[in-house]
Amino acid sequence: MSRKRYNHSQRPRQHSGFAGSSYHAYQLDVPAQTTSRAELVRLLRGGEDTFLELKVRYSNAEKITAEIIALANTAGGAIIFGVNDQLRIEGVENPEDVEEQLRDICANQIQPPVFPYINKVAFDSGRRIVVLEVDAADRPHRTLDDRFYLREGAIKREASREELSRIYRELHRTGFEQVPVFRAKIETDIDESLLWSYVRSVNPGYWGETTKGYPNDVVLREMGLAVKIEDDWLPTVGGLLLFGLNDRVAELLPRRDVLLTRYSGSSPKDRTSPVVEQLRLNGNLLQQADGALSFLKRYVNLLDARPSRKARETDSAPSVQQLVANSYGNFVHERASYHRAAMIEALINLLIHRDLSARDRQTQINIYDDSLEFINPSQQPELPLTSLRYGLSFAPNPRLKSIFTNRHYGAAVAAESVRGGVPMVFAETLSFARRAPEGPGLTNNEFKLKFYGLLS
Question: Which of 337, 330, 331 has its CA nearest to residue 315?
Fold first, then answer.
């Protein structure tokens, strides 16, 4: 079977009645009622490859889900049920049940859903097989637990971060923030008070008392924070992070939290310092931002200007709270000072510019006696990272950025922000601490920026 066979024409996709379509049909841009037996024999002659998977029977829905995703993420293809490894047609016992289960997988177990073309073909022997065909029009697809698969020859494998990044660039996708959360519902998972507090504040007078009810789906759709799937409007990753109920965000987006750690001692290269306190922040961005700012203020001083030497000597004695052992059994002796605007800008960038598609990397803030470390999942930008020093910016999540940095959203960090980007952060930090930040650096798809504080 050649690759050309799956180089499809741009035939309009259908969302129902798929059983009357085949790749041969829309390759020629004309409808077909069935896939012919001769066509199937030609397909089977070459055996399994990048575009064809053979199954003797329907079993193990999880593996079949991965196989469908792999085909749809690579270049499209087909899975034929009822054919063994020796290319002998054995048939399936109940093709109608197989078709129903396949449609359920494609609609409910894959994000975004796959719209398959499914044919049931009967042979003179009485045996019947099921042919599922998918294209790559809406890739990348993933499982409900955010696993992406590709097909390589006759096998599937999990996609690497680099491959996913390339797919997103090729498809000109704005970012993962626009992916719908298929287990979420606007009516049960959106914080209505937070959403409408923002809407009425940013647009006063437009939403008057005469409004009947709260058209949450309309508002989220107009802000680009909801996607229509069949008859339902689903919140996107960005919409849920901005306006989701905290407990539901933690449950539906468990890998989009922030880990904050206060270590005892100066920053070591191997990070072996004992932990003073550790906090994992879940929930929407408002909760994450305010919680992170409170944690920072608990362990560092955020100042608007560099204090005089006399002031630093006066404030050098540790407080009783700093000298008392915490629950980890460690002490905090040093309390460094940092420029307020620079640290708030760094915190905002940490929250809104992270790679939301990352499954195996953690957004982190590490606090040491002498320094602060910001670590964020990130994809390789088009330009070198040094371009940030010249005022260029990369916004992988533009909707998050626009709404979160709007003062009407209500985040304390946004209210205290003076903006200015990376150039301001570097300039103010150098002026305040007499030492430039380390970075920005990108290693193993982790963006790192380190600040040294002003010690007494």
Answer: 337
Instruction: Using alpha carbons, list the distances in angstroms from residue 148 to 46, 70, 116, 144, 159.
Output: 27, 8, 18, 10, 5
What pLDDT is recorded for position 313?
64
* Weakest mean pLDDT among 61-65, 211-215, 284-288: 211-215
Q: In the predicted model, what is the mean pLDDT of residues 92-118? A: 91
Nearest CA-CA partner of 103 in 195, 206, 230: 230
* Backbone dihedral angles phi then psi of residue 390, each to the nearest 5 degrees: -100, 10
Nearest of 364, 240, 357, 233 to residue 296 by alpha carbon:
364
Rounded to two decimals, the pTM is 0.60
Helix, strand and coil content of the chain, in percent to the nearest 5, comes to 35, 20, 40
User: Mean pLDDT across the stretch 434-453?
Assistant: 88
C-alpha span between 287 and 299 (Å, rounded): 19
161 Cβ neighbours under 8 A, 6+ residues apart? 358, 379, 445
Cβ contact 216:199 at 8 Å: no
Residues 6+ apart with CB under 8 A from 181: 234, 235, 236, 237, 240, 252, 253
Give the tens place of pLDDT for each residue, 327-375: 444 555 568 999 999 999 999 999 999 988 887 789 999 999 999 999 9
Phi, psi of 442 (to 5 degrees): -130, 110
Q: Characterise 224 by phi-psi region: left (phi > 0), alpha (psi -120 to 50), beta (else).
A: left
Radius of gyration of the chain (CA): 27
- For residues 80 and 92, is the Cβ–Cβ distance under 8 A? no
More confident residue, 64 or 136: 64
Of 127-141, 301-315, 327-341, the range with the lowest mean pLDDT is 327-341
What backbone phi and psi angles, to 5 degrees, belong to 82?
Answer: 110, 15
* Dist CA 111 CA 270 (whole Å): 38
Domains located in the chain, CATH noted: 3-159 (3.30.950.30), 186-252 (no CATH), 258-452 (3.30.565.60)
| Nearest one of 137, 138, 119, 141 to 128, comparing CA atoms | 119
Residue 193 has pLDDT above 60, yes or no: yes
